[in-house]
Amino acid sequence: MDFSSILYTVVIFVSPHVGGNAIDTIEGPGCPPSFKRRDEQCFKLMELRANWPEAKLYCQVIGGDLARITDGDLQTTIANLVSKRTGGRYWVDGSDILQSRVFRWMKFNGKSVHFDYTNWIPGEPKHPSDKCVEVCNNKNGMWNDLDCHERIGFICHARASPGVEMKFKEEMDC
Ligand SMILES: [Ca+2]
């Protein structure tokens, strides 16, 4: 299946499930449409029902990618995002699909980055067949390895435009 076919499949089959359930859709300055700005980053938290590959492609289609948690500040931001939800589970970009039990933040061009920062739930990751990473709101946003085929919510991320950031700060100072 080529990329256009995959994209068509995602738009047709994922959008009806997640489009109507989007939350945090207040547009942030310097962010892609429908992303919300948190500090220097843009996020879009999507409610239920996409597997990991669908979630990743969906985030890419709307101008971002699945969220990567590469330091404690981002972990705090993600934890705050999911803290208002009850029972929420959300995909982030981590996976060990390239090398079993070696988790990485994945990238669109096939390159990836090993985890330098982690915030696993104690005892996780513990299931070699669970190859994708979710954050759990009932665990303060800590991480769990989960079967990539599970259909849960997900968190998209995009970089904020630096130029818009300056304008945004000036406006906020007035
Ligand atoms: Ca697990």
State the order of secondary-structure elements, H for helix, E for strand.
Answer: HHEEHEHEEEEEEH
What would CATH call the homologous superfamily? Answer: Mannose-Binding Protein A, subunit A
Q: Please estimate the helix content.
A: 25-40%
| Low-confidence regions | 1-8, 15-25, 166-172
Radius of gyration: 16 Å
Describe this entry's structure for a reader:
The protein has 174 residues and is of the alpha+beta class. The protein has one domain (3-173): Mannose-Binding Protein A, Chain A (Roll), CATH 3.10.100. 28% of the residues lie in helices and 26% in strands. The chain contains 5 helices and 9 strands. Strands 1, 2, 3, 4, 5, 6, 7, 8 and 9 form a 9-stranded mixed beta sheet that branches. Strand 5 (104-106) and strand 6 (112-114) form a beta hairpin. The longest helix has 12 residues, at 72-83. The chain is globular, with a radius of gyration of 16 Å. The termini are far apart. Mean pLDDT is 81; it is low at 1-8, 15-25 and 166-172. It binds calcium ion. Calcium ion is lined by residues 124-127, 130, 144-146. It comes from Potamilus streckersoni. InterPro entries: C-type_lectin-like (IPR001304), C-type_lectin-like/link_sf (IPR016186), C-type_lectin/snaclec_domain (IPR050111), C-type_lectin_CS (IPR018378), CTDL_fold (IPR016187). It holds the Pfam family Lectin_C. This is C-type lectin domain-containing protein.
